[in-house]
Amino acid sequence: MTAPQRATRHAEAGAEPSACADAIPSAAQCGPLSHTLSRVARLHRFAAGKLLKEAGIYPGQEFVMMHLWDAGPVRQSELIKVVDLDPSTVTKMLQRLEQTGHVRRSPDPADRRAVLVEATPASCTLHAQVTAAWSDLEDLTLAGLDAGERAELARLLGKVEANLCKEAPGCPATPPVRS
pTM, whole model, 2 decimals? Predict the structure, then answer.
């Protein structure tokens, strides 16, 4: 809802509109693009969550599975670094994925104190569902954009990502976006 729409709704409800009803939120006035980007990221995550729920997983778990499908068995400590989440969050994700039969954890034969995590053969069905969900998410996200606009958006977001990556310690290099 836009600021003018909020002001109209308040007026219709008999409330006095804010003195700054036409402005974007005060904290975002010096960063309207950052404000928009934050809203878009939140909405993108919400849409992803709806699609992933159909596959029976929670948002974020797909990144764990994507890494396991691509890398094979990895130490849990490495997985935590790759997904860049709190260790307790990753542990909870792995517990849920283990309960559903998508991952298996076992002691690392090279270091019995470490834990290896791997995708199970049963996760192949989930792989197909996640692939379909991400394809649907891409279609939803880019609906109405032609090929040139999609390429330009990918290029510009790549530059934004590179800028932000400079500020994030240990920011992993990401592969280029394919058009």
Answer: 0.76
Q: Give me the pLDDT at residue 157, please.
A: 94
CA distances from 123 to 19, 85, 94, 99, 106 (A): 55, 22, 13, 12, 17
Encoded tokens for 168: 């994030």
Tokens of residue 43, six digits: 């909405």
Q: Which residue has the tokens 């909020």?
A: 6
Quote the CA–CA distance of 40 and 23 in Å, as a whole number: 19
Instruction: Give the pair of three-digit tokens for residue 173.
Output: 């290099």
The reported pLDDT for the residue numbered 12 is 62
Following DSSP, what letter does each residue of 11-41 receive, concatenated?
Answer: HHTTPPPPTTTTSPPGGGTT-HHHHHHHHHH
What are the DSSP calls for 137-149, one per residue?
HHHHHHTT--HHH
Could you tell me how far CA 55 lies from the centroid of its own chain? 16
Of 125, 65, 133, 54, nearest to 98 (Cα)?
A: 65
Of 134, 158, 156, 57, which Cα lies nearest the Cα of 103? 57
Name residues of the chain where pLDDT drops below 50.
179
Q: What is the pLDDT of residue 29?
A: 76
| Model pLDDT, residue 170 | 74
* Token digits of residue 65: 């599975």
